[in-house]
Design brief:
- This protein has 613 residues and is α/β, with parallel strands linked by helices.
- 65% of the residues lie in helices and 7% in strands.
- It is built from 25 helices and five strands.
- A five-stranded parallel beta sheet has the order 3-2-1-4-5, sandwiched between helices.
- Helix 5 packs across helix 18 and helix 9 packs across helix 13.
- The longest helix has 33 residues.
- The protein starts with a helix and ends with a strand.
């Protein structure tokens, strides 16, 4: 126990006071690093997902990546404007869950909330597996250790988040801004080289040229895959409470900055991919091929690969920032365990952070660390809440009205329609990868409602109304059963205490066949020490203590109730001086308390005897 406390302090740091919470709030500079890493890092695989679909037809079809990218940018604009409105209208955090619950009702809110919970786990899994792919592209010798590397990265980011937002944001500042500098440098240097003629035009088809076999279905399949570049945009709206004051303004401005940077990155990378005629390869990412063409295999290429690996690895942190707050909102509404509302030593929602890490690691093992298998399911988890939140904002504007409300509603309508079309195409064109959503979502909803019903029933049973205060039961006496294994200082002190609180005290002992002489000796020793206390020896032929103890206590409790007596079972145990020594003792008392707790007419109490040495 002492070793665990030392290790915990080493990994997480010293506890913070509740009053220190203000110091954990985020500036726009740090929030961009903490909350936009997922969205910005998606450019590392967004264009690749588009080209992977289009290349199945022909190299000439890669020309359509420009039109797909243009549609993705339209959707990005609509989503950004919508979430800026959500931030201002619903600044408590929770994002799509709160918007859908308020405007469409609780079931729609739970679908949005459940989708996002799973999506944040997928965010971590996709980001980390993509990061490991960037590492193995640069160092092929590590390819066989991809799953292990991914799991270690998840554990490292979990430990970082358990230390608190301020420290995790400070740590993430370098990889995020390093990536921004390298991508900006690559795009600008690439365009300058194109303008100067140093980069040769290698596109298989000119813009607007007819491509034989191209269909609308294939185009939308590419669009639905490329839309993965927009994942993570919603994270800022879920984490508004983490910002410094004025929270709404700072969160909205951070979202705008992130979207502008994301749009520039996505447009630039897609254009370079088209111009250079880049084709997706299994062992070399599209971004890596662009970097090779622009920088060559020199220092800047490896710096770009390093920055890509770093941001993809830490992009998982967006999920760690948003998941705990969403879980908090669900727990506050009694749809998740209240443990998700508890703050840890560093003022973060530690249970949410740990749950997210466990879920992400499970997904990495299930999908064997392959990003392409996770992307479609990942996109569904994003665009279902997008659709619900943006359509919910239309309802919000019709109810609230206000200045220019119809223009705001029109923006939400555009985003909702495109998101809905995406969801339909994701299910229609990628059903082989997204079908688990249709199983996971009902199970999550069932879990939410079961938890909610439980909390409502518990609250109803625990609530004390005025008339019940006058009807509290008055007992005429108390029966105390002391469980005795042998006669020691512990049992002697426990019996002595029982006599002070009970009108009728019984000592109960369970004996076995193995050593009858010892059992007789225990009975004789107890009777000589406490001649005024009734001693009952229950024989067990099957070496079970719990079952005969429970049966005996049931009989005594029934008789006590007939006399209007309460029944208390006292379980004696000693407490070692060293906390770690507890694992060596008291297992029997734990089992006995567990079985006795099932009886509503029996009070279970523990008598602790503390050892001095």
């Amino acid at each position: 126990m002492i070793m665990w406390r030392y290790l915990k302090r080493l990994l997480i740091g010293k506890p913070l006071k509740t009053m220190d919470e203000g110091g954990q709030a985020l500036t726009k500079f740090k929030a961009l690093a903490l909350l936009s890493s997922d969205a910005l890092s998606s450019v590392a695989y967004g264009t690749e997902q588009i080209t992977t679909v289009l290349i199945t037809l022909s190299a000439a079809a890669l020309m359509y990546q420009l039109w797909v990218a243009a549609l993705v940018l339209v959707l990005l604009f609509a989503i950004t404007m919508s979430y800026r409105q959500i931030i201002r209208a619903y600044p408590s955090g929770g994002g799509a869950y709160v918007v859908a619950s308020t405007n469409w009702g609780r079931p729609a809110g739970l679908v949005a909330g459940g989708s996002l919970l799973v999506d944040y786990m997928l965010t971590v899994a996709v980001s980390v597996t993509s990061g490991t792919e960037a590492i193995t592209s640069a160092v092929p010798a590590l390819a066989n250790y991809q799953v292990l590397i991914a799991v270690l990265i998840v554990l490292a980011i979990m430990a970082l988040n358990l230390r608190g937002m301020r420290e995790s944001a400070s740590f993430l500042t370098f990889p995020v801004y390093f990536f921004i500098i390298m991508i900006v440098g690559m795009i600008i240097w690439g365009i300058m080289n194109i303008a100067s003629g140093n980069l040769t035009y290698h596109a298989a088809a000119a813009v607007g040229a007819p491509v034989q076999g191209m269909t609308l279905v294939l185009f939308f399949r590419a669009f639905s895959s490329g839309s993965s570049s927009l994942t993570g945009v919603e994270a800022i709206s879920n984490a508004v409470p983490n910002f410094r004051r004025p929270k709404r303004k700072n969160a909205a401005n951070t979202l705008a900055i992130m979207s502008i940077v994301l749009a520039f990155f996505f447009a630039g990378i897609t254009y370079l991919s088209y111009y250079l005629g880049i084709k997706p390869q299994s062992d070399n990412t599209v971004l890596s091929q662009i970097a090779t063409a622009v920088f060559g295999h020199g220092l800047f290429y490896y710096l770009l690969q390093l920055s890509t690996a770093l941001i993809l690895a830490v992009a998982a942190n967006t999920g760690f920032s948003a998941f705990p707050i969403l879980a908090y909102n669900l727990a506050k509404d009694k749809f998740l365990p209240h443990a998700y509302m508890d703050r840890g030593d560093r003022l973060g929602y530690s249970n949410g952070i740990i749950s997210l890490a466990v879920g992400a690691i499970a997904l990495i093992f299930i999908f064997h660390g392959k990003t392409t298998l996770l992307i479609p399911l990942y996109a569904v988890g994003v665009f279902v809440p997008f659709t619900l939140s943006q359509s919910g904002m239309i309802v919000h504007w019709f109810r609230e009205r206000g200045q220019w409300w119809w223009m705001k509603a029109a923006v939400n309508l555009l985003g909702a329609l495109i998101s809905l079309v995406l969801v339909v195409f994701l299910f229609g064109l990628h059903f082989a990868n997204v079908w688990p959503y249709l199983i996971v979502m009902p199970l999550l909803l069932y879990m939410f409602y079961r938890i909610h019903v439980h909390y409502i029933r518990v609250a109803a049973q625990l609530r004390v109304v005025a008339k019940e205060k006058a009807e509290l039961h008055d007992y005429d006496g108390a029966t105390v059963i002391v469980l005795v294994s042998n006669v020691t200082r512990v049992t002697a002190q426990a019996v002595n205490y029982a006599r002070s609180i009970g009108d009728y005290v019984i000592a109960m002992h369970v004996s076995f066949d193995e050593n009858p002489e010892k059992e007789h000796k225990t009975a004789a020793e107890f009777k000589s020490t406490f001649p005024d206390v009734r001693f009952v020896d229950i024989h067990s032929s099957y070496r079970s203590i719990a079952t005969p103890t429970l049966r005996f206590c049931d009989v005594i409790a029934k008789r006590a109730a007939e006399r209007n007596f309460s029944t208390t079972v006292l379980v004696p145990q000693f407490v070692p001086k060293k906390p770690w020594q507890n694992i060596l003792h008291n297992q029997t008392s734990l089992r006995l308390r567990a079985v006795l707790n099932s009886r509503e007419n029996i009070i279970v109490s523990t008598y602790n005897y503390h050892l001095k040495e």
